[in-house]
Structure formats: structure tokens, C-alpha cells
Amino acid sequence: MFLPDAKLEQPSLDPPSDGAMVINRLYLSERTSRSKYLIDTGADVLVINLTTASKHLTPASLQLFAANGTVISTYGQQLVTLDLGLRRVFKWPFIIATISQPITGADFPTPLWVAC
Fold first, then answer.
1. DSSP assignment of 37-49, as one string?
2. Where is the signal peptide (predicted)?
């Protein structure tokens, strides 16, 4: 609703002018497995959770860190095929880690949004 000479009731959606990094999050469901993936432009790596089938894997030397500083153990990589219903199927190497929610990040959304 447009209110002339009125103040914004909600904060602006414009990026901050102080140079702060903007992090956007979106959840998408993978069509085949029905798994939910967090699409996080602030994430630096692609990560999937350690499943029951992959619990036999030995820990890798790579350690990830959560935003609160907690160490996240990793167990190697796995090529994952994602069908997110977005005109094409995506294949990427994901790091297997002890997390609860699969995360896609890095530059995944950027070329996708430009192409749409």
C-alpha cells in the first residue's frame, strides 16, 4: 500500500550501505529424494549430512566450523545430483559432514538467477 508522506513501517530490503555482507537463504526440495536443501549465498561450500548408509566412512582431515565456532567433522566428498525443478538437473561434489540440513552455497544461485 502506498502512503504519501508516510514513513516505512518495515525495514528497507535494499542492501546495507555500510559494506556489510548480505546473506540470503532459501529452502528448495529435491524432487527425487524429497530432501530439503538450504540455499545459502553466504555458505562457502556445498555440504550434505552424514546418513546411516555412509556412517562406515572414516573422518577426513578437513574440519568445517559453524557460525558459532563449533567444529563440524567431515567424511570426504560425494557427487550429488539435484533435481530442484529448475529447468535442469545439477551435479556437484558435496562435502559429507555431521550436519542436520544439507546446504548448497558458494556460487550456486548466482548463475541460476541470471539465467531465469
1. EEEETT-SS-EEE
2. none
- Cβ neighbours of residue 73 closer than 8 Å, sequence gap 6 or more: 59, 63, 97, 98
Residue 6 in grid coordinates: 508516510
Say how far apart CA 33 and CA 38 lie, in whole Å. Answer: 15
Joined together, the cell numbers standing for residue 61 give 582431515
pTM of the model: 0.66
Which helix (DSSP H) or strand (DSSP E) does residue 25 occupy? strand 25-29
Q: What is the CA radius of gyration of the chain?
A: 18
Strand order in the sheet with 25-29: 25-29, 36-40, 103-104, 47-49, 90-97, 71-82, 63-65
Question: What are the tens digits of pLDDT across the range 18-53?
Answer: 666 666 667 888 888 888 888 777 777 889 988 866
Tell how strand 90-97 and strand 47-49 pair up. parallel
